């Protein structure tokens, strides 16, 4: 068996569908590369990613996948570093911190609504993926660097943000090459000079912004405050820089992607959009009542977002782990140093686990007896175990806030140019999204 078929699938933009096909043919566990197993059954989340039993070693992050500065981040670090960083960062993601951060979120979401009213006046369609990206990156920039990227105000991408989207496919190629001999040399030779310059400029900007944030004299209720307080005692400079970058990208791109997918699904399922609008109107007397706390009471909204994440998970591909010792994963013996992975999209779409797996049905999360046999535990878009997403609760609150205010203000129709938007997405580790054109009609009953 050779690595080449897996590499080709990974870089094709349709690797998630290839892995889906393999699981449909060969079952719950598939050898997808010479030393890599894909686990495609619901309990695999706990078996592979979950807390280990006493005496069992963690299935750690695959060190080949996480290289360079990634080893200093919460997501790419070893067990000891991860435990230390998570303890420090957790303060910025607490319920108390979220309430203290509320004015920041409200300011940017309100700006987004104001700008959308301006650009949609006259009935012209709006390209929503960029507006969602601009809003989420502006919020993240404020809460990490201490200042916005000003994407919303300028209605354009900041160069730092633009670069992230520019090289999604290139990142897929480099991660595909890491399994081969002399990978570092090959990647270096293949990287064009202008890309290397882009990466350096990106890094230099991060260093400058973190330096400015560290110089603030007064404490600030953001994600960086606890790390800065721990600087040189529990956090070194490399960790500070790497996690600032990681928190912005991880907390922005995936949120914007989930909202884009959900907006498309709502726009193509009018009865669900209407039902969600009714819930929002019955819950709130005015737009000012919509905040990070109150949106958590929107049960149908949660079902809509969770179903959106099932149909269109923000991270469709696997983030691999590696066994540190031989042992059992579920009922199967797996040798030491084996790469083990779970691909979200193939599992979330498996008809063995979900009735009407290709349909968008929020009611499956609300006790509809038609879907009582669904394996709901299969859907873990934020992962599980000690390395699950630290920002899960905040992400749900932020998405509910943006979506609630959007639907409060506008009716949503999909422009004919984007009727097949979902099918035109290509998947690497993240989605490479086409433009999502929508018509936003101001609500007449406001």
Automatic annotation (TrEMBL):
Keywords: Heme, Iron, Metal-binding, Monooxygenase, Oxidoreductase. Gene3D superfamilies: Cytochrome P450. Heme binds at residue 389. GO terms for molecular function: heme binding; iron ion binding; monooxygenase activity; oxidoreductase activity, acting on paired donors, with incorporation or reduction of molecular oxygen. Its cofactor is heme. The keyword Plastid does not apply. Signal peptide: none annotated. The keyword Cell cycle does not apply. It holds the Pfam family p450. Belongs to the cytochrome P450 family. This is Related to Isotrichodermin C-15 hydroxylase. It comes from Fusarium mangiferae (Mango malformation disease fungus).
């Amino acid at each position: 068996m050779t690595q080449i078929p897996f590499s080709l699938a990974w870089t094709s933009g349709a690797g998630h569908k290839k892995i889906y096909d393999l699981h449909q043919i060969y079952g719950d566990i598939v050898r997808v590369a010479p030393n890599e197993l894909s686990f495609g059954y619901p309990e695999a989340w706990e078996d592979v990613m979950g807390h280990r039993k006493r005496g069992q070693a963690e299935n750690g992050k695959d060190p080949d996948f996480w290289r360079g500065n990634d080893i200093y981040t919460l997501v790419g670090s070893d067990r000891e570093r991860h435990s230390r960083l998570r303890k420090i960062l957790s303060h910025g993601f607490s319920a108390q911190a979220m309430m203290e951060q509320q004015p920041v979120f409200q300011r940017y979401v309100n700006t987004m609504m104001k700008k959308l009213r301006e650009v949609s006046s006259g009935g012209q369609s709006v390209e929503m993926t960029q507006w969602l990206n601009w809003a989420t990156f502006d919020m993240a920039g404020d809460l990490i660097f201490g200042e916005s990227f000003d994407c919303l105000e300028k209605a354009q991408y900041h160069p730092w943000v633009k670069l992230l989207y520019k090289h999604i496919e290139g990142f897929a190629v480099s991660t595909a090459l890491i399994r081969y001999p002399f990978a570092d040399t090959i990647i270096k030779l293949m990287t064009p000079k202008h890309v290397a310059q882009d990466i350096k400029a990106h890094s230099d900007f991060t260093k400058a912004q973190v330096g400015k944030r560290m110089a603030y004299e007064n404490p600030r209720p953001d994600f960086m405050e606890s790390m800065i307080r721990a600087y040189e005692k529990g956090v070194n400079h490399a960790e500070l820089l790497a996690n600032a970058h990681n928190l912005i990208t991880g907390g922005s791109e995936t949120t914007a992607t989930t909202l884009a997918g959900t907006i498309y699904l709502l726009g193509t399922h009018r009865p669900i959009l209407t039902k969600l609008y009714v819930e929002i109107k019955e819950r709130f007397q005015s737009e000012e009542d919509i905040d990070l706390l109150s949106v958590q009471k929107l049960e149908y909204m949660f079902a809509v977002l969770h179903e959106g994440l099932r149909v269109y998970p923000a991270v469709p591909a696997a983030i691999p782990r590696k066994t540190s010792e031989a042992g059992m994963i579920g009922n199967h013996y797996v040798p030491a140093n084996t790469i083990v992975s779970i691909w979200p999209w193939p599992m979330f779409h498996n008809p063995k686990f979900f009735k009407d797996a290709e349909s968008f049905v929020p009611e499956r999360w609300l006790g509809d007896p038609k879907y009582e046999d669904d394996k709901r535990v299969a859907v873990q878009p934020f992962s599980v175990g000690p390395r699950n997403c630290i920002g899960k609760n905040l992400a749900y609150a932020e998405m509910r806030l943006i979506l609630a205010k959007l639907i409060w203000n506008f009716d949503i129709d999909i422009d004919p140019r984007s009727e097949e938007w979902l099918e035109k997405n290509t998947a690497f580790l993240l989605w490479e999204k086409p433009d999502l054109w929508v018509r936003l009609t101001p609500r007449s009953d406001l």
